[in-house]
Amino acid sequence: MTNPIYLDYQATTPVDKRVLDTMLPYFTDAYGNAASRNHAFGWVAEEAVDTARAQIASLINASEKEVVFTSGSTEAINLAMKGVGEMYGSKGKHIITCLAEHKAVLDTAKHMEKLGFEITYLQPDKNGAVSAESVRDAIREDTILVAIMWANNEVGTINPIREIGAVCREKGVLFFSDSTQAVGKIPVDVEADNVDMICFSGHKVYGPKGVGALYVRRRKPRVRLVAQMDGGGHERGMRSGTLNVPGIVGLGKACAVAEADLEKDMAHSNALRERFEKKIFDSLDYVFINGDEHNRLPGCSNLSFAYVEGESLIMGFKDLAVSSGSACTSASLEPSHVLQAMDVGDELAHSSIRFGFGRMTTEAHVDFAADQVITAVKKLRELSPLYEMVQEGIDLSTIAWTGH
Amino acid sequence: MAYSDKVLDHYDNPRNVGSLDKKSKDVGTGIVGAPECGDVMKLQIQVEGDTIVDAKFKTFGCGSAIASSSLATEWIKGKKVDEALAISNTAIVEELALPPVKIHCSVLAEDAIKAAIKDYKEKNASAAPAEAQKA
């Protein structure tokens, strides 16, 4: 076992060897431009791109023509939201999204506000989920787009996408779901789940970084986008730029592997998470699960260890690579916007750590990690004035703190 | 974020962790910060005459906050009360090589020292009322 142990699968994933092997020839041998129509190099590249498109379409139950390649989810989100805004802005200027979305969605929404769009930011429930009813209540005559993520990247909560999609259908509003954390991890079916656009990145599904895709529905309804990148008119005019053939081949292969192994991968990640959380809860008190305990992404465990602060905890597990929802890991002093939106309380937000398990994680990794976490939490609670007060029976909410 | 060796050392081997009897007349207790801000420091001093003979701390906070309070107890032990009052956060920043985003940790440590001394002086106010008022 080599240290540190990688437990940050929601941030990115290692490239699967099967994926890498498929990609390699497209760097050195089959290096043609997929848009070159006049020679074999171009034809081979185009064929590889077509194969990848079919693999991706198969995973999400779309047709090949509905897949637009991008550099990743952030670009796809920008294209989806701004592209819809520009295309349908004359019909209405209202967009609905959620406070727990990824910054790529929230910052795009903020940018669009400056351009004259009006954004409704729905508050998620305490688990981080958005209900179809709250979407229904927010839809107005001038609503053109609903943007709600499939699964949350920090806490793993899975939204009721099918129900939200049904509401959007009924109201005739386009529905875009950032499914970066969902595709390849849980079943995603663009037909059954009533979505009009979804996006995802290669590197979250054991594929390469720098490549992703936007699914754009072609029938019932046909979604039209204004391109946000002008140029050679690639990707049916929606995204100009020479196709990243090796990356696209990798994304396609990653999707094919994910489709074949979906059940196995889900069972594996779920079992590891159960094993991890059982060990933690058996040894520590005052630990809380952030997110929907019963409806989370497999392999995502966001825990708050009350009375210890997240960054100091991460310092304590030197051999683990994990993320904290605490403010101190970023330049800003605000704790995670997702945990804040869920109203878990700033105190518990400061004490949160996200553990991510995936295809390459083993039981030995999980056992080692749990031991390090338990040791660090116990050590820091010895150091914690809050834990001491709680042990003495003092109600922390009755104390007049001197905030700074 | 990379931590300085001194921050790591205080984190791995915090000095003077623990609690003194807060009811004791010769003990002053300072609790500063707030849980929702992510930092709470409790710093206690035991005073004999005008000398701090012992100091203990417990801190809820990031590694820099733990190191700042650990260092503070190290520095004030054996000092006269007035000397301890003169310790400024900038000295802590320098000693631990704290980055700008962590300066508030050093401010909190300075506040904790002052709060503990204030508490001690208030407890002993009957002996020296003028002094307590000044603090």
UniProtKB/TrEMBL annotation, chain A:
<dbReference type="GO" id="GO:0030170">
    <property type="term" value="F:pyridoxal phosphate binding"/>
</dbReference>
<feature type="domain" description="Aminotransferase class V">
    <location>
        <begin position="5"/>
        <end position="367"/>
    </location>
</feature>
<keyword id="KW-0663">Pyridoxal phosphate</keyword>
<dbReference type="GO" id="GO:0046872">
    <property type="term" value="F:metal ion binding"/>
</dbReference>
<comment type="pathway">
    <text>Cofactor biosynthesis; iron-sulfur cluster biosynthesis.</text>
</comment>
<keyword id="KW-0001">2Fe-2S</keyword>
<feature type="active site" description="Cysteine persulfide intermediate">
    <location>
        <position position="328"/>
    </location>
</feature>
<dbReference type="GO" id="GO:0031071">
    <property type="term" value="F:cysteine desulfurase activity"/>
</dbReference>
<comment type="similarity">
    <text>Belongs to the class-V pyridoxal-phosphate-dependent aminotransferase family. NifS/IscS subfamily.</text>
</comment>
<feature type="binding site" description="via persulfide group">
    <location>
        <position position="328"/>
    </location>
    <ligand>
        <name>[2Fe-2S] cluster</name>
    </ligand>
</feature>
<dbReference type="InterPro" id="IPR015424">
    <property type="entry name" value="PyrdxlP-dep_Trfase"/>
</dbReference>
<dbReference type="InterPro" id="IPR015422">
    <property type="entry name" value="PyrdxlP-dep_Trfase_small"/>
</dbReference>
<dbReference type="GO" id="GO:1990221">
    <property type="term" value="C:L-cysteine desulfurase complex"/>
</dbReference>
<feature type="binding site">
    <location>
        <position position="153"/>
    </location>
    <ligand>
        <name>pyridoxal 5'-phosphate</name>
    </ligand>
</feature>
<dbReference type="Pfam" id="PF00266">
    <property type="entry name" value="Aminotran_5"/>
</dbReference>
<dbReference type="GO" id="GO:0051537">
    <property type="term" value="F:2 iron, 2 sulfur cluster binding"/>
</dbReference>
<keyword id="KW-0808">Transferase</keyword>
<feature type="binding site">
    <location>
        <position position="181"/>
    </location>
    <ligand>
        <name>pyridoxal 5'-phosphate</name>
    </ligand>
</feature>
<feature type="modified residue" description="N6-(pyridoxal phosphate)lysine">
    <location>
        <position position="204"/>
    </location>
</feature>
<comment type="function">
    <text>Master enzyme that delivers sulfur to a number of partners involved in Fe-S cluster assembly, tRNA modification or cofactor biosynthesis. Catalyzes the removal of elemental sulfur atoms from cysteine to produce alanine. Functions as a sulfur delivery protein for Fe-S cluster synthesis onto IscU, an Fe-S scaffold assembly protein, as well as other S acceptor proteins.</text>
</comment>
<feature type="binding site">
    <location>
        <position position="242"/>
    </location>
    <ligand>
        <name>pyridoxal 5'-phosphate</name>
    </ligand>
</feature>
<protein>
    <recommendedName>
        <fullName>Cysteine desulfurase IscS</fullName>
        <ecNumber>2.8.1.7</ecNumber>
    </recommendedName>
</protein>
TrEMBL record, chain B:
<keyword id="KW-0408">Iron</keyword>
<comment type="function">
    <text>A scaffold on which IscS assembles Fe-S clusters. It is likely that Fe-S cluster coordination is flexible as the role of this complex is to build and then hand off Fe-S clusters.</text>
</comment>
<dbReference type="GO" id="GO:0051536">
    <property type="term" value="F:iron-sulfur cluster binding"/>
</dbReference>
<dbReference type="Pfam" id="PF01592">
    <property type="entry name" value="NifU_N"/>
</dbReference>
<dbReference type="GO" id="GO:0016226">
    <property type="term" value="P:iron-sulfur cluster assembly"/>
</dbReference>
<comment type="similarity">
    <text>Belongs to the NifU family.</text>
</comment>
<dbReference type="GO" id="GO:0005506">
    <property type="term" value="F:iron ion binding"/>
</dbReference>
<dbReference type="InterPro" id="IPR002871">
    <property type="entry name" value="NIF_FeS_clus_asmbl_NifU_N"/>
</dbReference>
<protein>
    <recommendedName>
        <fullName>Iron-sulfur cluster assembly scaffold protein IscU</fullName>
    </recommendedName>
</protein>
<keyword id="KW-0479">Metal-binding</keyword>
<dbReference type="InterPro" id="IPR011339">
    <property type="entry name" value="ISCU"/>
</dbReference>
<feature type="domain" description="NIF system FeS cluster assembly NifU N-terminal">
    <location>
        <begin position="2"/>
        <end position="125"/>
    </location>
</feature>
